[in-house]
Amino acid sequence: MRHKIIHEIALSVVAAGGVDNIIRALVEATARGTEARGCALLTVQADGKSLAPRVSCGVAEDRLHEKQILVDEALKQVLKGNSLFVWDVAGDPRVTHKEELQREGIASIVFLPFRDQSRVRGVMRLYFSENKGFGREDLEFLDSIAELGGSILQSAETQERLQRDVEEARRDLARIRDERRHFLSFLSMVTHDLKSPLVAVQGYLKILLRKSAGSLDERMVKGIHRSIERIDGMMELISSLLELSRLESGQVISELKTVSWEEVLGATVEMAHELASPKGITVTTEIRRPLPEVFASDIRLQQLILNLVSNSVRHTPRGGRITIRAHTENDAVAVNVEDVGTGIAPDHLPHVFEEFYKGDPESPEGTGLGLSICKRIVDMHRGTIEAISPVPETGRGTRVSFSIPIGVACSLEDRWMLEGDRVIRVPAMDDTTGTT
Amino acid sequence: MDRKILLADDDPDVVEVVSILLEDEGYEIVTAKDGAEALEKIKLESPDLVILDLLMPRVDGFAVFNMLRDPSYERWSKVPVIILTSVREEVSNRRYELETGQRMDYAAYLEKPADPDLLLETVSSLLAQD
Predict the structure, then answer these.
(1) How far is B79 from chain A (nearest CA, A)?
(2) Which of A24-38, A57-71, A79-93, B115-129 has the lowest mean pLDDT?
(3) Does 3.40.1190.20 match the CATH number of domain A251-419?
(4) What is the ipTM of this complex?
(5) How far is A342 from chain B (nearest CA, A)?
(6) Of A197, A201, A428, the CB nearest to B55
(7) Which pTM does this prediction carry?
(8) Which residues of B48-76 are buried (b: 16+ CB within 10 A; e: fewer)?
């Protein structure tokens, strides 16, 4: 019980008064209470071989100017947890600076170990001008004071370590933020520079095609058309890579706001029709209203659904059908996009969300990044996503379902980064066009 | 009468491609390789239309656009501007509004790579309006 009470007192007083104030109060109170001439507290250094002065009162300052006090045989006993009494400074062989002490009129010294349950953390020295004698009760009481002091030193150490950790973490965070900013501006510059030559080359090809209508044979015309398409594919790939890095580095945080699911779906369904109608594919919806508002990125949620629709369009034959469903279930909004297309082979299914994974590696269409981007967007909103194929009800096609929680929609890590960084400036060369 | 178009883009190949396209249709083309040159040529040449890239060295397209709303450019404030850039439209709008507090009221916005037919169509319909 005694340990526990002392420990609790130490925790509370350190929290309330600050370490240095409490230690000073303890030293001064002990000196007054014992009618000591002076009192000093020395703390044990990390090497365990020396002591450093921390607080003193009533003794000449120059005694404290010793930066480090080496542990001799006598102090060793104290550091083992035993109190040490030097009743007669003049006659005791263990005392080294006899003359100085006598000059100050010090006749006896008491060394009290400041210990907690595990070890001795400091030594309190009490100086008396007469040959002091303590009764048994006094000694026991001084022992308790020493234990309280030890506990305080322990709490202080913990507190100092915490403070150091906090400062270190703060420095790390600042560095990470800085690196992130550099990385993002580097990224948009690279993207711009990678795309510019492609834009130029494609421009010449398109002009060539216009101006030489009729003078090129059919195979050449087809070749130029293919070149234009391949360049489109390459630009799409560059955009997707940029997109992926952005999602990874948390830049999208600036887009988070209160978003209405109904508005997101409204806008997305309209764009889905535009994607599907050139291939004669019908888009139907089964949306169970009302749908809630969430803290999310509307741009990303739209992009997520449209990526799924565009995949479905790619793998669904002319005249097919794509269905977009949405409803609220268990504090989450569940959305799925289903098609009647070619489906995904069972051995491909577990890998579809991996980067650069393409069901058909030979296929010139698609970058293999669409579904990984979807996965990142879902992750960022703390949701889940899965694909099944064939769809059990129809025996064909693919259904990709995702679920986004209504509560805390963005990840804790993202929120943490959001706090000090609410407005993220859009770098000059940001957001170049062409994302799927 | 030839209609005069100022084309400002720092990529010489984009300038070349767009010039070929527009000259074939009988337009007179004046070019500028950055925003500062574009602002000079607007005063010097008084074009009927400006095709403006946004990311350019020295003075960028945003600044050119903003300058055209300045009283010193009042004579040219009605010249239609087509933005031709690789920056996404909503991103440009957001940035311009953030920096100037105003809406970027361009005549048309085309994202690169732009379709030649779409560019020609946009140019001819804008020039037919005056």
Answers:
(1) 25
(2) A57-71
(3) no
(4) 0.84
(5) 32
(6) A428
(7) 0.59
(8) bbbbbbbbbeebbbbbbbbbbeeeebeeb
